[in-house]
Amino acid sequence: MASKAQDSTSDSPTGDTGPRSRTRATRKPAAAAKQAEPRSAASSAPRKRSTAKRPTRKAQGGLGTVSMIGVAAAGLAAGLVANLGRKAAVQAPSALAGDWFEALKGEHKATLAIFDAIQATADSQTMRRSVLLVQLKHALAKHAFTEENVVYPALRDAGQAGDADKLNHEHGYVKQHLYDLDGMAKDSPDFLPLVAKFRSELESHVREEEEEIFPALHASLGEEKNLAVTRAANREGFKIA
Ligand SMILES: [Fe+2]
Ligand SMILES: [Fe+2]
User: Fold this and answer.
1) Most CB atoms closer than 10 Å: which of 86, 167, 200, 226?
2) Are 127 and 112 in contact (CB under 8 A)?
3) Which ligand ends up closest to the CA of 166?
4) 98 alpha carbon to ligand 2 midpoint, in Å?
5) Relative to the alpha carbon of 109, which ligand is closest?
6) Are 126 and 134 in contact (CB under 8 A)?
7) What gap in Å lies between CA 92 and CA 7, rounded to an integer?
8) Is residue 213 within 8 Å of 115, Cβ to Cβ?
9) First CA to last CA distance, the chain
């Protein structure tokens, strides 16, 4: 037994009984552990590094959201600039007229041109009628907004509240006709007769403004007040353009 024990320690040059003096049976698990250890270390170390350097899913999501917000903001800014350009183009004819009365006369003329186009359509041209009706509605909305927010108040301030209220009342029926045409089938045989009635009433309203009420107001205001009304009218028109 003693010689077997001696043999078992003869692998160690120093004869110590430390780890290297262990039997093969005890070395195998140690070797296996050594082999397993680097794999374990190798697999855990990079995970630690990746956790430290790579953005988390939440952070990636955050960056994605930031990018999306940036793209959306850029798109919104471009859209706003484009819309301002479009509004300026729509308001340009009135602004370039240089005087509120001349500007409104120009808008009357442009509106009647849309009526001409609608009245030239056949019942089968339903899409064209719908598109022209949208144009008419926008032109009249912008025009009425300017008159009701600037010119009619100036009329009241000039002592002509009765005229202002009468014109404002007539604008209510302009909207009524637009509402009725909107709800009507565009190939209806009643469509063009209603357009004709609408036009007739509108032309009467325009004559009152152009031939009686507005010239009197323009003459009473004087240069400075007319200029103020012109500037205010352009501001209001731009809002709806
Ligand atoms: Fe009007
Ligand atoms: Fe008008």
Assistant:
1) 167
2) no
3) 1
4) 17
5) 2
6) no
7) 110
8) no
9) 111
